[in-house]
Amino acid sequence: MNVLLVTRDVRVLREGSMEHAALKERAASVKRLVVVVLNTRRDWHRVEKVSESLWIFPTNGYLRTFNPILALLIAQREVYFQGRLQTDLISGDDALTAGFTAWLVAMRYRRPLHIHIESDVLSERYMWSGLINAMRALFARFVVQQAHALRAGSEAVRGAIAELSALLAERTIVTPLYLDVDSVQRDVTSVDLRAKYPTFKFILLCASPLVRSQNVPAALSVLAGILRIYPHAGLVIVGRGPRRWRLWLQARRLGLSERVAFEKKSDNLASYFKTAHVFIQTSPYEEHDNTIARAAAAGCAVVTTNVGSAPAIIEDNVSGFICESGDPACFVRNITSMIKHTDVRERIRLNGMLAVQRYMNTDKDQRMRQYIDSWQMALKESEE
């Protein structure tokens, strides 16, 4: 089987990353895997022939808006010859930009379409959370309905697909999120937050894009509540995005300037997780980049909303704490308990590590079979 995969995950371009290694494993299970990465010139990369069965083509677009067209051009230039597209299946790694781009290629060359969806973009909660998200949800629903088969990251996502179409749900294979826990735990600590911010005696960590959907301002409200009880705490925010200056101004307005530190986006979050005391996730409907599981795997206590991998990993007051996004008092209460009682934080931290190992360290061969089964299902459905 020859597969053309479209993804927005630029980490697959970086040799040595877990994402790059995962691509090589997938390529070993098919005849040929061609990967088109929707990146920009800010993260410019060369075309890479990893092996005879794996080629990676970055779009290197000036603007993200042009990436779907650039992907079409790459498909025509690199994969189209002898009068046909030399691939059996087009797969999109999400239901938004990558999925739309995959649909364009599939429609242009009359190939089966496969979509992988992990986030909560199909749910009613997501749709009614704002105008932009409503537009994204409608966009995702259109893309999903064009697919011949899908792969979901959780039963909750499959449930959202079922509400959209019972037939699509029957064509959906659930593949739980995977994390190489041992790799996270072996990562060398290159950034030590406790040494870098010695005045922060208890470090809260927030790592996500600085966009509205991540609800990062709630983390500032949480910090303000904690400082009333423990004045030596600090918050480190890792990420980039259009709301950075708003967050900086909000921190200043709340009198938190000396207690908040902004760090650039990093691909080595393991160091941050290992040297922070608590990781907080405040988004009401989506987890960014598997951060809940990665934080727990690195031994960082987690206080989160009930999103992403949290329902599978976090048992409230056992392996972490779960709060509503609009309830900062819940975050404050649980984090304060871990500040006052180190045994509570140690229990939460250790139980979180064990929970991730049980849930995430699934059999690689089984996961790979699920990948292949999902792709083969798309091929079969396109023939009927």
The side-by-side strand order for the widest beta sheet comes to 3-4-2-1-7-8-9-10
The structure class reads alpha/beta
CATH level 1 name of the largest domain:
Alpha Beta
By CATH, the topology of the largest domain is Rossmann fold
Question: What is the CATH superfamily label of the largest domain?
Answer: Glycogen Phosphorylase B
Strand content: 15-25%
Annotation field: number of helices: 17
* Poorly predicted ranges: none
Number of domains: 2
Helicity range = 40-55%
How many extended strands?
A: 16
Distance between the termini: 18 Å
Overall average residue pLDDT: 89
Write down the Rg: 21 Å
- Tell me what the CATH architecture of the largest domain is: 3-Layer(aba) Sandwich
Which term fits the overall shape?
A: elongated
- Strand count, sense and closure of the main sheet? 8 strands, mixed
